[in-house]
Structure formats: C-alpha cells, structure tokens
Amino acid sequence: MPCIILDIHNFTYINSFFDVAFSDEILKKFSQNLLEQFKKYNYAFIARFKSDEFAIFLEIPENQTNNIETFITEIFEQLNKKIEIHQLEFYLNFHCGIALFPEHSKNARNLINLAQIALKKCKTENIKNIEFYTKTIEERTKLYFLVQQKSNYFQFNNEFFIVFHPYNHIQSKETIGFEILSRWNEPNYGNIPPDQFISIFEKSGLIKSFEIALIEHFIKTYQKVINNEFLKNKMFSLNLSPISFGDPYLMEHIITLFLNSNIPLSSIIIEITESSYIESFDYASQIIQKLKNSGFNIAIDDFGTGYSSLRYILDLNIDFLKIDKIFIQNYNDKKSYTILETITHLSKSLGIKTIAEGIETEKQLELIKQLDINYGQGFLFSKPLLLNQLINKI
Questions:
Q1: Is 201 in the same domain as 126?
Q2: Do 112 and 26 share a structural domain?
Q3: For the whole prediction, is pTM greater than 0.85?
Q4: CA distances from 318 to 49, 136, 298, 332 (A)
C-alpha cells in the first residue's frame, strides 16, 4: 500500500495573483477530481494535508502490485485535465512523494514522513513528477539540512580541510603543481564525498561563503610553507563554481585576497567549468581577462564533457585545458581516442597546455605520452595528500 503526498506545483503563484476565495475554489475542484479518480478502488483515503498538499493512502489491486510506479503514474496522468473557474482555465501540475507499506515502514506517521522526504527530492530536482522514497534520498535530505546548519560559517582545519592532488609532467614525471581540493569530515557522519556536499552548497546558496573560506585557508597554508624549496616554484590550482564565477563582486574580492597575500599570482591557476562561460560568454571573457591582467592563469576543467562550441576556446584567453577522465579511461573506444587527438592538436596549435585527468594505469600513461599531452593527474602518480603527507613525501 503506497502513502502518497501530492503537492500542487507553484500554487503560491495562483494565491498571489488571485484572492484566497478564488484559490480555494481551484483547490475544491482539484479535490473533486482526486475523489473522482480514486473512488473506483476498494480502499483509498484522501485528505488535504497542507494548504496545497494532499495525503493519499491507496490499496493497490493485486494484478498491479509488481508494477506500482506505472500504475500510479497512469492514475496521475488522468488528473492533468483542465479546471474551469469563472470562465478561466487552469492546468495544474504536481509532484508526488511516495513511501510503501510495509516495505518502508509499518507506521502511518513514519510513512508520511518518508513520503515527504521523497517529495522534497522531487520538488528540488524538478525532473519528474513522481519520486519513490529510498534510503539514499533520506541520507541526501539529512545532508541538505546539515549543510543549512552551517549558516555561512566554515571552519577549516576542523571539519573542513584541504588536500593537494599533484599533477606531473608526462615525460619527466616531475611534479609541477597541485590541485587544491576540499574535504569534509563531519563529526557525526564521517567523511562526506565532495561530489555530494559541493552540489548541496550550490543549491543552498552557501557555495560563495564556502569558496571564500577555502581560499582564505589556502592562503594561510601557503604562507606557512612559503620557505619550502620544493613548493616554491610549484603551481596551485583552485576550482571556482559557476555561481561564484558569475558574481563580479565576489571575483573582485578573490582577486583582492590574492593581491594582499605574498603569493605570486603567476603560480595560481583558476579552474572554471564550461557552464561558467556558456551562458554569458561576454561576461566570462571580461572576468577571465581581468584575472589574466592580475597575473592568474586560467584553466577549463572537465573539458570535452559539455556541449559548447570549440569556438569558445578560440576566443577565451586561457592557459590550460583539463581533459576529463572519461576520455582517458575509455581510450580503447575509437570515438574517445579521436576526441583526445582533436583536443590535443587544437590545444597545441593555440598554445594552450593540456592536463589529462584520471590516469590510473601505465597503459593510460603510454597513451598520454603518444598524444604528447603536457601534464597528467591521477592515482598512478599520487592520491590527494594532506599537507603533512606532502611535506613528508618531499
């Protein structure tokens, strides 16, 4: 038996445009449609749960128990019909979160909570109308609320810390620089992977504060090891999210932070992704030029995975292309190899240096050598290192 929490999509806009009485008429009409749709089933309990949310408990016919998602999808497809109020027509879309009895819980209150967790994911991602509860969704929701509790305060050297991932010259294998990566060791949850928490920081609006805190911490760390001969002439690259890159005031602040440090800006590489420039090329070009004028190097990260025209690379004043690991790891695929060749030849003709990501085997390294890619990064050379591990390795 599924517990369904149904939320009418963007109903607040109707509330703000019309008066409350008119909005209530729409809800009543929608409620009638719900009752009409479910009355043919042996057991269906329907209640208005919140202002524009409904809770539904439904007994599934025995011949549909193995295909619950299709069954429920077909029901709700029939709800997508117009509602007429005072000669006005409305088509209401909705999201549904679903938890199953007894698979997910045998308690009605718990089922409702789990269905709400699934609904939260459905509304946040806005990819499909129906989402079933899973343990993964619950963990991600907990992580989302955990992030919210940080409230723009990120304490590095405690929960948050940085690691140094070397990249090496392909021919000599000499370490020429390090990518600065963030890590989160949450006291109650342990190590949380960056691909999980970074995306949540972006969605929650905390990414700008986080990246400023990371840069400030890196500057302090650099100043502690500035006299180390091995690190003196190395490059250090930092990733900026499209959200941070798209804020001109934040970019000015980042430039100022580095200008006020004793770090030679020629040793800093700012990494941006395709989405940082594809939506507003003119703005991106101006910011990149400002960074270049200040002394920074610029790299395009994960190059080859997006859909932008190669023309952008011709027009952007960049120094490095980081080739995404998918092409390195699928080098036996003819298309991947052709793309690798194209990127390498294009970069060389434009005077842009290349960095291959995700090198894990000697065979991959030999391929990179044959293509004459400049630098490589991956576990074959080294895993990301804490500062003390890096110093000890030297």
A1: no
A2: yes
A3: no
A4: 54, 39, 5, 29
